[in-house]
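Notebook, student rotation project (T.W.).
Task set for the rotation: take a protein with a known small-molecule partner, predict the structure of the complex, and write up what can be learned from the model alone. Partner molecule chosen: 2-oxoglutaric acid. Sequence and SMILES entered below by T.W., checked by me.
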Amino acid sequence: MIIRGSGALGRVAGWTPEYISERFADREVSISVADPDGTFRYDPDSETGLRFETMRGATLAAEFRRVPVTRKLCLQQLPIDARVPELAGEMSVPPVVPAAELNEINLWMASPDSRTPLHYDDMHNLFAQIEGRKRFVLFNPGQFEDLYPGPLNTRSESFSRVDLKKPDFQRFPKLADVEYWEAVVRPGDLLFMPAYWWHHVSSQDVSVSVNYWWRPDVRDALCPAFLRQLYLNLNLEDVNALFEAFDFSALGTGSAALLALAEMALAHGEPGAAARICGGITVASLREGLGLPEADVPSLVAALGPEHDPARRCITAALRARPGRPSSEAADLIAQLRVSNPTLTTG
Ligand SMILES: O=C(O)CCC(=O)C(=O)O
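Predicted structure of the complex:
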């Protein structure tokens, strides 16, 4: 969804490169430098994932406006509250953003003809264009496998292996049939991108943007990328970490919310994730019930008596679960936990 010429940006609408440069004048700013083709690619060999350079704030505007453009630059995803105190006081939140749920507001600045490769984020995003034009190519999250996501548990997990600037249809044949949307945003426009929508973004001019990120309710995020990401946060040792990673407010609290999540994962074809959630609930409630809050999973299992056989079965099933691997037990485990009504303190 795009709101054209929103008029909702207040003083943020005046953040030209020159204005930003002036406000940053006395300090160094970290800028990422694109590959020669203009793409800000993640480099698996670099510690930060991107090639960075520091630049004097006072020279920022001139560096971004330098003609001819010899190097493409990007001030990338700079959290305004935490890292840009010079501008934080001028910020306003457009009324379409649920301000109380905001996670981060970021500042972006990019050279003409530079691009951010195809990827998705796990947050809802209101993208506000302040200066210059940006072109978005957007793909709905259901097309996950056809967009060739990077390997799980790596830094490129949420990036496509496809280079949209030069797509290789021999290597990535499913790409030929994907459906996409295209949008060019101009100063004053607001683009809403729901969480997990894939996007490829190219800057057509010297561009300044601000994006507003907030966590989706999990019921709005059920898609293959979310279910895959769930595995990353499914740590049997600390199932409570899930409450930090996702917004369960609509699902209830404590184990009720996690059981609802397990049911949703099962309904969306991920019995392995459902089994892992059940295992996490069981570990947390056993620790509480047995008074062993510090026990790791093997010591906890070793401390179980025969009366805990169902709990042991649940933890064993959870330890066996892997993304995409079928688990015939998940529905039984959920039913068992519903009956035994385990407690979970955090929620
Ligand atoms: O503007 C860009 O280059 C990338 C923006 C983006 O990926 C985002 O807002 O999530």
